[in-house]
Amino acid sequence: MRTWFLAVATSASYGAVARSIPLDLDAHFNNQGFGTYPGESAFNALNESYPAFTSYQHGNETFVSGSGIQYVAPGYRGASTPDNIICAGQRIALEKPRRAFAFSILHSSDVRKKTILGNITFTYSDNSTSTAELRSEPWWAFLAINRGDIVYDKFYTHNTTNFNSSHIFELEAALAPGKELAAITLPNTTNATTGRIHVFAASLWESDGPSVGVQSVKPTQKWIGDGDARSQVVEVIVNNGGMECVHGEGLTVSIKGNDVKTIEPGRIRRLCPGDQKSVQVSVTGSGACAVDVSLLYQNTTTTHTFSDLTFGLTNWTDANLAAHESPQWFDDAKFGIFIHWGPYAVPAWGNSTPYESYAEWFWWYTTHPLGDKSGFRDYRLRTYGPDLNYDDFFANFTAAQYDPKDWVDMIADAGAKYFVITTKHHDGFAMFDAGNTTNRTSLHYGPRRDVVRELFDAAKTYQPSLKRGTYFSLPEWFNPAWGPYGFAQYGPENPGGTTHPGIIARNPFTNATEPYTGFIPVDDFVQDVMTPQMEMLAYAYDTEMLWCDAGAANGTAAFARQWWNWAREAQGRDVAINSRCGTALVNDFDTPEYATFSTAQRRKWESNMGMDPFSYGYNRATPDDEYMNATTLVTTLVDMVSKNGNLLLNIGPRADGTIPQPEIDALREAGVWIAAHEEAVFNTTYWFQKAEVRDEKVNVRFTQTDDALYVTSLEEPVGGVLEVRAPVPILEGDQVSLLGVEDGEALEWSFDGDVFRVVLGDALVRRGKHAWVVKVEYVV
């Protein structure tokens, strides 16, 4: 059987490949990561391996990534033949120093659920150096899938085939403009237990040729306009490998070929040496063809030809699902509110820091003592006695004070652009009308209200700009119909690991069977419960984002194909599905949990976390002063946005529908700051050169629009001066200001090519709060 191989969003931009120079790494290969059968290769300490997609022997096949970079293709090279590098501080010297714009590699880490960090060091011919952080994701994942740039449909263990997908990721790192690269030194990550970084291929993007050039052209399935006026969005990556800044009226990007024509050109106002920007061009036309991409700057046009591209908005089929991406509205929205609410808000307990666990997992922890590290079982016994069952909490889940208008008004006041509510958590209690799939819902028990419908209607009526999303757990812990699909997240080596068993729970003290109230017998959980409920949320409730959780067995691909086609053609909407719906094909954005990154990620991501230190559901054990405050909210948001992320921040209402006051106060206070600084947050992109500068003197993040760069200090500038070592794209005549404060315009600044210095003054600094945003406005 042929291994399924997916080069995600490959641009096939062959016109640019001449400037992409694959490096020969054969002499450094020290590990065999691909195999033709289980146990043949040992990518990691467990003797697991990638499946052999191709059996080439000569190492001369190529792979072009979605960002337009050409590599020697990773793959199987023969029995006992190494095909990748375990990073151990190797120095890779070039045959001769050469100018290059960027360095790119294909990589992964080899321990499940372990993201490994390390620095790549670049040495130039003048003996100067620069570094780039390599953040390497695990090569396979379960429940939440971080989709790579190359995806395989399986991997091999030491003795069998595992049909979870495996992945290889890409990193592109900026190099010092104008300098000749002499050598690359890889990180040192050799601990097989904690995880190692593997490198499969590397490439340079040369600086020779036109100073400003096109790296890749990617026709997306995004669009602008409605009906017959609809045009396709094409993403074009433009690099400045020269020594002069693009400035003034800037650069115009257009596309032409056969019946493909530009409707709205892309524009880049400022692009300085060593920088890269992705610009959107809208076009009409369809079919496979070559196109000319024209860059017009100061009355001079340069043209780059790209072949074998396919244009046109097409219906979604099983063959093209991976081309779906996060919608533009989601990319621009940046900030959403997560709401975890259900019967678990009645016990509302997860212990307190440093012993806290998720309160919404109350039922599972009390019935799984090996996984209970926070004392859930003891709390249940001493508080409720031995005879209580989880479903007894339904009666006190009243929602008596639930006011959907208050909720959506508060979300808007916080500055959020969307929200996601738990329509059903792992306990199987649905907060919406689930029809004949189950009676275990808020319409039949507890509130006896359609909680989701009321919230969505309130948003449409009172805050229509808010996008509406639905969290949905694919499995149900103790639903017996889930039994044929039940699973443990880990094997017997981790008996305390989470499980979704699909067997009726037993009271941990009496051993009696606990009821599964509202259960309706069905033939197949996926076909008769999971998929119909997903369809209800999509069509009857008009959700704009399906935020899955615990993606194991599923019917996601067929559901997504139909929903995406219907949303675009019948409603003109672009909707989203996250990374937890159980398949690598349907996966618009990554979803790290209570985590952020230290570098910008090209692939869109959204971190979810609670205002509670470590719980999503309401936890009565959390003191008021431990909830996230406004300063932490603001700085967390800015940090994530600077790295191409969104923040999905959770609140946990009580059983009666009231929200803890510390959460309300912090959200509204942060909302005041966000409103005054929104141009530095929303509708921005990350900066290719740097996401952050963090040292003993400063702690800043960068965001940008086409007209400005925003330098946000997460700490109060000392002495009224902000000094940042970064290649800020500023020219004489540009304006520098401090956003959100009176008299913050026209500040004194200097830039010596290395350090950007702004004189704020103590008085202006004192007028600020939470974070200080310096705007560099491109004037000249």
Structural summary, described in words:
The chain has 10 helices and 41 strands. The strands form 9 sheets. Strands 1, 2, 7, 8, 9, 10, 11, 14, 15 and 16 form a 10-stranded antiparallel beta sheet that branches. Strands 17, 18, 19, 20, 21, 22, 23 and 24 form an 8-stranded antiparallel beta sheet that branches. Strands 31-30-27-26-25-33-32 form a 7-stranded parallel beta sheet. β12 and β13 form a beta hairpin. α4 crosses α5 and α8 packs across α9. About 2% of the residues have low confidence. Keywords: Glycosidase, Hydrolase, Signal. GO terms for molecular function: alpha-L-fucosidase activity. Its EC number is 3.2.1.51.
In short:
Helix content is 14%, strand content 31%.
The coarse silhouette is: globular
**What integer is the average pLDDT?**
94
For the termini, the CA-CA separation is 60 Å
Helix amount, in percent?
A: 10-25%
Query: Regions with pLDDT < 50 over 5+ consecutive residues?
Result: 9-15, 55-59
Major sheet: size, sense and barrel closure? 10 strands, antiparallel
Highest CATH level, the class of the largest domain: Alpha Beta
Number of strands: 41
Portion in strands:
25-35%
Helix vs. strand class = alpha+beta
CATH architecture type of the largest domain: Alpha-Beta Barrel
The total tally of domains equals 4
CATH topology of the largest domain: TIM Barrel
Number of helices: 10
Radius of gyration: 27 Å
CATH superfamily caption of the largest domain: Glycosidases
Enzyme class: hydrolase
Function: Alpha-L-fucosidase is responsible for hydrolyzing the alpha-1,6-linked fucose joined to the reducing-end N-acetylglucosamine of the carbohydrate moieties of glycoproteins.
GO biological process, one term: glycoside catabolic process
EC number: 3.2.1.51
